[in-house]
């Protein structure tokens, strides 16, 4: 029996409370003592810098939960020492990333590399300007228990941005190694007095060369400023070809506030182009797709907690959510006869094609007709150059004799191929379940061209639902309970691994999607 909408709203409460508690821990950064130590140096924290840089309330964070889960001996690192996302300056959209010196000295771990790769790929895809605030000690020492097989190549991704989107960098503190190389890609580089920029710090220089040199001598503003070389910067301690180094700093600020003011002023001086037209030889930037209205054509807003069930077993009609997403009188349903609903709508005036699992039919199991309907919607979106919103809530592909006889596997291949051909932007939201191949079939691929991947709290991932998997391998008792508990944490666990950009409460869905429109 379908639950009342009021009881659905109540069931979300514990999930939302847990989400808020996790967010609070991330916002603490490296803890009170390290924040105080940062302030004692006359420096702002990464989050304070971004708050000063961006329009109030415009920052949408990506990857906040990366590094937030304790895994064996590996320590927790809130946001993995790199706060990033997108926002606006005087209404103009941009992508931002800030190293957090209060967390492990702002060092770069594997999670940080993945976040940087994601950020730089978004800059390349969207054509939006990229602002980086650097204050970190370079690559993090790998823990012996860290057996990561894939190391993201973020610097190559940044090289792909160079020349197509402006890269604006502020060196706010000590910037070493990997982060220092990042600074050299800047089209406009601002450095704070007392900051330092070098490939290796004084201890490593001494260990390798025996040379005693201070951070200031090694990479202070006098070393990297443009113009004539000072006698200090060309001392006998430096190689003879140092006099030929032209420097990379465009502006020296006395403090963080001055640096951020310069970044804002330079950003505002950039010319604007209204559409993303690929590489731009004149260095112009993209404003965003359009000026989105503050309000939309909507007679009333429904509490989404009363639409989407918090549990994973209640059947519900996804069309009611699609109707809530759509501006009034703009929804055109293409297909609503099987396991997938496809439609076209306007959202704050922006056209979207929607592809959604339908839990009211076969509990959302993806059967052949649904896969073909989804593939057809992707083909339409490709021909009309329309972004796609994918709403996932499915326990997997349909199974059994009838499903196999209907060619469900071939239909899945057709859908995957349609996704591969689709080059426009996609947005993915896991509402409750994304089991088995549904993640791939519903486009959950943060490094595969998506501009946004979201999940509601309590969203469940895995090869099979925990109960089904336990039954299949004859697990019982404690083993089954552990499997179910792990599955229940799928949304945050997925966000910790950057499978999702963010985990959001149901009533944050509309605002999160609206903010994402600036990336289209």
UniProtKB/TrEMBL annotation:
<dbReference type="InterPro" id="IPR011763">
    <property type="entry name" value="COA_CT_C"/>
</dbReference>
<feature type="domain" description="CoA carboxyltransferase N-terminal">
    <location>
        <begin position="11"/>
        <end position="264"/>
    </location>
</feature>
<dbReference type="InterPro" id="IPR034733">
    <property type="entry name" value="AcCoA_carboxyl_beta"/>
</dbReference>
<dbReference type="InterPro" id="IPR029045">
    <property type="entry name" value="ClpP/crotonase-like_dom_sf"/>
</dbReference>
<protein>
    <submittedName>
        <fullName>Unannotated protein</fullName>
    </submittedName>
</protein>
<dbReference type="InterPro" id="IPR011762">
    <property type="entry name" value="COA_CT_N"/>
</dbReference>
<feature type="domain" description="CoA carboxyltransferase C-terminal">
    <location>
        <begin position="293"/>
        <end position="520"/>
    </location>
</feature>
<dbReference type="InterPro" id="IPR051047">
    <property type="entry name" value="AccD/PCCB"/>
</dbReference>
<dbReference type="Pfam" id="PF01039">
    <property type="entry name" value="Carboxyl_trans"/>
</dbReference>
<dbReference type="GO" id="GO:0004658">
    <property type="term" value="F:propionyl-CoA carboxylase activity"/>
</dbReference>
